[in-house]
Amino acid sequence: MKIRLVTTTLIVCTLALAACRPSAEENPASDSSESPTMATHDVHSFAEPDQVRVEHLELDLTVDFESQTLHGMASLTLDHEGAEQLVLDTRDLDIQGVTLGDSEEATDFELGAEVAHLGQPLTIAIRPDTEVVHVRYATRSADAVQWLTPAQTAGGERPFLFTQSQAILARTWVPCQDTPAVRMTYSATIRVPMGLMALMSAENPTEVDPSGVYTFEMPQRIPSYLLALAVGDLEYRAFDERSGVYAEPSVVEAAAWEFADTPAMMTANEQLYGPYRWGKYDLLVLPPSFPFGGMENPRLTFATPTIIAGDRSLVALIAHELAHSWSGNLVTNATWNDFWLNEGFTVYLERRVMEEVYGEAYATLLAELGRQDLHATVDRIGADSADTHLYLDLDGRNPDDGMTDIAYEKGYFFLRSLEEAVGRERWDPFLREYFETHAFESTDTASFVQYLTENLLDTLPESVEVGDVEAWIYGSGLPENFPQIHSESLETVEAQLAAWQEGQAASELATDSWNSHEWLHFLRHLPPGLTSEQMADLDAAFGFTQSGNSEILAEWLTQAIGADYEPAYPAVEEFLTEIGRRKFLMPLYRALVETEEGKRRAEEIYAKARPGYHPVSSGSVDALLGWSAE
Question: Which residues are CB-contacts of 530 (< 8 A; sequence separation ≥ 6)?
């Protein structure tokens, strides 16, 4: 067996971390009521879970659209052995008082110094017998929360609110141990204006409660970044008894049609990786300011409306968020340095499910586009950069800095390289057992390497060539044994592109059967230096500037900026003003700032668009343009 795996230092580190894990008897994977321990230090949290651990969170909050605040109380049930203080993560919270136990006896508390990205530690005096701590508070700016006016919604008549807690923004709306190493159950009472529906990452209603008071339970343990709340004018459509979609009334029918394959995706996941462990799986389509494609909040995936294309061509995102029900939500990265454990695994599961539901050729096409994204990211970051490692060092940085294609696509191709080396007959049972063994736990990279070694690599015949696992995880750039992708459908696209470059009119190209991903490949491979006449030929034939498909439109507009195709600039401004998805914003703004005139346009557009962006998106654009967050 040819495996160049880990150094002595890594083995010692791995064993030390593994020794802190509970045994199977102490933490049965089938029982989500057990609370696993995790000794890994999280540089993005003030909490001290090795001293005191939050077991359960109970929220009682009022949603005030007029003041744009959440206010009420968080009650935290603790597990400790005689501790005298509890340290919570907070950021921009107005802490109004802290009490202990059923008697709500007042206790001392202190907010520590502000630390960039992290906020302030809230240190609370507790007694050795304290079981529950109550924190009365109100939010301030709350970067996790976006408050939308009626004009910013599809319906245009009622306001909307949604949260985005990943990575460390839960602390901006809930005082908590804001680290993925701590998992807790939670319950909530949420009071909203009458006529609106409240939803959480929990057991949800399907109809509006006339009282405006909603109660929630999440019986499975989750990390804080999966706390989620949305409030708006919403309706529900069921796919079957286990899944459905929420959306604004004017959007819900289109969403229900677009995502109708969700039950088939659930079945495919279960056949491959074991039972779905979260009860129901529903989707919530948010307004277009949502900064991500999707967020895998358990039981309630938040999704961008930009994937409603009318032809189900962008539903790989649904497969991705659903796959998080196994990788990420069920087995969670213990720190944000280990983010690839969430996303690399999830991309792998997503593409296996897409293969099961839509066929191998379709999954291969997705993998090739992912490879292109990865190479573009490596080129932008630099192949020698430590930020191209799977295991990251984000100490002193915003963990959002690690949310790049490295975690997603390099992680995917690493797992794919293992699959190709050992064969699916070994790989699939290993992966299924991994999820079962670590269900409802948080784990880290070193622990995964140990599990991989002991349960797969050490069992392989001598003839199996796996490659350098250490190089994949801790090395820069892309390893030598990078999997090769061959997509016949994309070769057909390239043939048509070559014909156009050789003089064939765009209107004569054979493109009628192309899906969104084939169009993306076509646009990504347009040659540099196109003239306005060439861009106009493409635009006239295919209507790119007026495309209703957000993926195609965003790619076309990026190309149009590079070619200085003037007719597309009004669409650039409209797109950047209406859409808040960071995946689309950053390439467009990056393309604009390449020239002085483009940077002027970017500044003018951003001044109008910024108030409608979620802080996750505006923070990234601020950094690119050199704007102050103030």
Answer: 559, 563
| Token code pair at residue 236 | 């529900």
Closest CA to 31 of 182, 243, 185: 185
The class that CATH gives domain 52-233 is mainly beta
Domain 498-625 listed as CATH 3.40.930.10: no
Q: What is the pLDDT of residue 440?
A: 98
What is the CATH architecture assignment of 1-31+259-281+309-486? Orthogonal Bundle (1.10)
Grouping H, G, I as helix, E, B as strand and the rest as coil, residue 459 is: helix
Three-state DSSP state, 385: coil
One-letter amino acid of 487: S
Active site residue 412: no
| Residue 321 falls in the annotated catalytic set | yes
Contact in structure between 275 and 566 (CB atoms under 8 Å): no
pTM recorded for the entire structure: 0.90
Which residue in 321, 343, 356, 419 is the catalytic one?
A: 321
Q: What is the pLDDT of residues 79-111, one digit of tens each?
A: 999 999 999 999 999 999 999 999 999 999 999
Residue pair 308/254 in contact by the 8 Å Cβ criterion: yes
What pLDDT does 19 receive?
Answer: 34
Catalytically annotated residue among 281, 408, 434, 606: 408
Phi-psi region of 86 (alpha: psi -120 to 50; beta: other; left: phi over 0): beta
From residue 356, alpha-carbon distances to 177, 263, 270 in Å are: 39, 13, 12
Q: Is the pLDDT of residue 521 over 90?
A: yes
SS3 of residue 482 by DSSP: coil
Q: Are the beta carbons of 52 and 79 closer than 8 angstroms?
A: yes
User: Pick from 319, 210, 212: which is nearest to 263 by CA?
Assistant: 319
Phi, psi of 307 (to 5 degrees): -95, 0
